[in-house]
Amino acid sequence: MKTKSRRRSVAVFPGTFDPITNGHVDIITRCLSVFDEVIVAILVNSEKRPLFTVDERIDLIRQAYRKNPRVRVETFSGLLVDYAMKVDATVIVRGLRAISDFEYELQMALMNRRLNPRIETVFMMAPESYSYLSSRLVKEVFHLGGDVSGLVPALVERRLREKSAPEGYVVPRRRRRRSR
């Protein structure tokens, strides 16, 4: 008797990721426990003025997941459901930090369902420790001189320092704190 093989589950996690935060990393990690493959889909939006170029964001995320072949990083523009169909994904993953995120995300999910009922939206709640965290807030805190360690991967923190350093200045590596 032939058994039907299970279809590979592919999820799209869309966003601008300018920069990727530990909240994003948490969502991607949890997605990997549910889906066979996660596509981190960077929205190309010419109206936004990002800190990191699209290529820099691709590079940051690819470096963060270079040892995990189940994470793919791509860009898209246009309708998310069209992109999801193009990459054979059946699920769009959205992170929710607070109730205030839910209303907007629900409207988007319902519109996406109307545009393509075969694509499901799955919401993942941010852990309490990242419920306030956003890329915009990370950039603002960093530019005002605040410490963003623990909020973004170390590579992102290093790149933030490099972006703010004067021309020709070599950014010193951050010392790791020793646990006692």
Can you tell me about this structure?
- The protein is an alpha/beta fold.
- It has one domain: 3-Layer(aba) Sandwich (Rossmann fold).
- 37% of the residues lie in helices and 17% in strands.
- It is built from 6 helices and 5 strands; from the N terminus they run βαβαβαβαβαα.
- Helix 4 (99-115) links the parallel strand 4 (91-96) and strand 5.
- It is globular and about 65 Å long.
From the helix content, strand content and strand pairing, which structural class follows? alpha/beta
Q: Give helix and strand order, one letter per element, not per position.
A: EHEHEHEHEHH
Beta-strand share of residues: 15-25%
Specify the CATH architecture: 3-Layer(aba) Sandwich
Shape type:
globular
Low-confidence stretches: 168-172, 174-180
Helix count from the secondary structure assignment:
6
Number of distinct beta strands: 5
Average predicted confidence as pLDDT: 89
Strand order of the largest sheet: 3-2-1-4-5
Find the CATH topology: Rossmann fold
Major sheet, described briefly? 5 strands, parallel
Which class in CATH terms?
Alpha Beta
Please give the share of residues in helix: 25-40%
What is the fourth-level CATH superfamily?
A: HUPs
Structural domain tally: 1
**End-to-end separation:** 60 Å
Radius of gyration: 18 Å
